[in-house]
Amino acid sequence: MSVIETQGLTKRYGAVTAVENLSIRIEEGEIFGFLGPNGAGKSTTINMLLDFAKPTSGSARVFGMDCQENGKQIRRRIGVLPEGYDVYERLTGRQHLEFVLESKEANEDIHALLDRVGIAGDADRKAGDYSKGMKQRLVLAMALVGDPDLLILDEPTTGLDPNGAREVRRIIQEENDRGTTVFFSSHILEQVEAVCDRVGILRDGELVADDSIEGLRANVGGGETLVVEGEGFTEEVVRNVEAMDGVAGVQVRGGGSELAINVGQDVNKSEVLGLIEDAGATVADFSTEEASLEELFASYTTDYGGAEA
Amino acid sequence: MSWTAIAKKDLQDSIRSRTLWATIGIFLGLILLLSWLFTDGSGEETFIAAAGFTFLIGVLFFVPMAGLLLSVKSIIRERNSGTINLLLSLPHTRGEMILGKFVGRSIVMVVTVLAGFLPALLYIFVQVNGTDVIQLLTFLFALSVFGIMWIGIGIGLSALVNSETQATITGVVMFAVLILWPLIFEQAGIDLPSFAQRFWLLVIFADLFFLPGRIADGDFTFPSVVEFDEVLLEEVNDVAISVGPHLQMWFVVVLVAFWILLPIGVGYYRFSSTDL
Asked: Do B17 and A90 touch (CB under 8 A)?
């Protein structure tokens, strides 16, 4: 049975479509990275899973139960780090966890929970005085209460320094090792790359990719960039190279002294270089780079690049 | 149970609120001052006469204001700030959230009433001869239930509105309308039937105040205060007092339930189907 399953899930706000016809399926034990730029519809999707927002059409199910009909039963078994939350300013970190423990009818050591996220020393301070990162850690600790079967984390690394982000990934990995399914949204591919088994990329409310990171790389023009140094990279040169089979995109960089070419794996590089010279440019040197994650992400979420490959 | 966790959390949160303590402090001072001004220390007044004027002001302004102040932003503020995202990520339904808030704020309301009025009541108790403890407790009981009705109205509004500004405005409007509507009808020359007058919150307060005494006397069919003209007339003519159940004093219990359940019900209906 799938842990999360949406079918044709759609959410419209007036004329604006936030999520369109989204069908995803997340299996037990997976770590699923839900990616997309800000405003792509990630949080709207999560809000429908949590019954914060009602779908315009389509369905969302968690543990096989309908998110609108059985919200309470579902939320008994999940831990959530929602977006756009705020903590209760006047309550301490400890009181926050007491509230969650009571709500989930769980019995756990508050100190151990806070220690796990690194804020045990601040348990008795008012959460309103916490920094953004500490609040994020507190809410993560709240999500871990009751050993949930599913963690839904909306941008969990926001507000954290690289060290904090790494700790969060470690906790996600630990929970997953204990059998917890993780649904993890982010607008930064690097954040999910290290831990995710599979990623879905959302763009303008639509799912444009659903694959492993390796699979995504393989899909985007072979995932390699041929960098050619030299001079005379005129528009005509660019046009000729772009017209070649297996070339997904061409960019002039370094003030005209560099040509970056997105190429497929089966492209003969010397043929490309030959074509450049035939068109009147001079090639001084060349090298290849693996497409960075940033470029990979950009190719799916912007019009530049070869996502349609 | 779900709502108990929310009520407890809400209490912990309210207790740390400076606004709450400031409200209690200001009204405590005000009511003590009024009590002192309106008792001449001769010891010849009755408790009701001495307490009456002082507490009329309290009943007209302090309790409704405090009740609305404590409740009208309770839900919309959680929506605005985003704390609701934490609360409703937990296994609570929106109905349980409203119930938990209502119970939590009602407890705060009762504490506020006791803290605000008890010292003044004790002062009058000492100053005025012939005050009995039952009357004092009845007064506190009526004030508390009256306060809880305003909490219900405030929570209902809070679940209904879309912003804190709307909450403030509708709160002020509701305060004025609920206190003044029978006077508006009267001024307009429209004669309200007795039963309609019973929905006036001030009449409900008066019925609540007299009810425990009637029940203690074993008189369950005694009419509501809206029928007091009739009662006097019938006493003069020495005939038995008889009105329908909806005009009997005990029926105030139903009216209290009405004023709590109607606003909360309307608020819940809207809140349960709205996107956060």
From this structure: yes
Q: Do B9 and A142 touch (CB under 8 A)?
A: no
Integer Cα distance of B112 and B19 in angstroms: 12
Q: State the smallest CA–CA distance between residue B91 and chain A in angstroms.
A: 5
Asked if B13's CB is within 8 angstroms of A88's CB, the reply is: yes
Q: How far is B111 from chain A (nearest CA, A)?
A: 19
> Chain-wide mean pLDDT for chain A?
88
pLDDT band at A308 (very low <50, low <70, confident <90, very high): very low
Check CB contact under 8 Å for A95 and B81. no
Per residue in A141-199, pLDDT tens? 999 999 999 999 999 988 888 889 999 999 999 999 999 999 999 988 877 888 888 99
**What residue of A is the nearest CA neighbor of B100?**
A103
The whole-number average pLDDT for the span A282-299 is 76
Does A98 share its domain with A78? Answer: yes
| Domain encompassing residue A31 | 2-212
Domain-embedded: residue B138: yes
Chain A environment of B77 (Cβ under 8 Å): none
**Cβ distance of B8 and A102 shorter than 8 Å:** yes
Listed as ranges, residues in chain B with pLDDT below 70 are 39-55, 129-131, 231-241
One domain, residues A35 and A142? yes
Whether A76 and B91 lie within 8 Å, measured CB to CB:
yes
Structural domain count, chain A: 2
Structure tokens at B78: 């959680």
Could you say which residues from 274 to 293 on chain A have a Cβ atom under 8 Å away from some Cβ of chain B? none
The whole-number pLDDT of residue B147 equals 94
- Structural domain for B8, as ranges: 2-188
Q: Mean pLDDT score of chain B, rounded to an integer?
A: 86
Asked if ipTM goes beyond 0.90, one says no
Q: Say if the Cβ atoms of A88 and B85 lie within 8 Å.
A: no
Candidate from B5, B16, B276 with C-beta closest to A53 = B276
**pLDDT confidence tier of residue A277, bands split at 50, 70 and 90:** confident
Q: Are residues A113 and A231 in the same domain?
A: no
A54 touches chain B (CB under 8 A): yes
By CA distance, what is A76's nearest residue in B?
B91
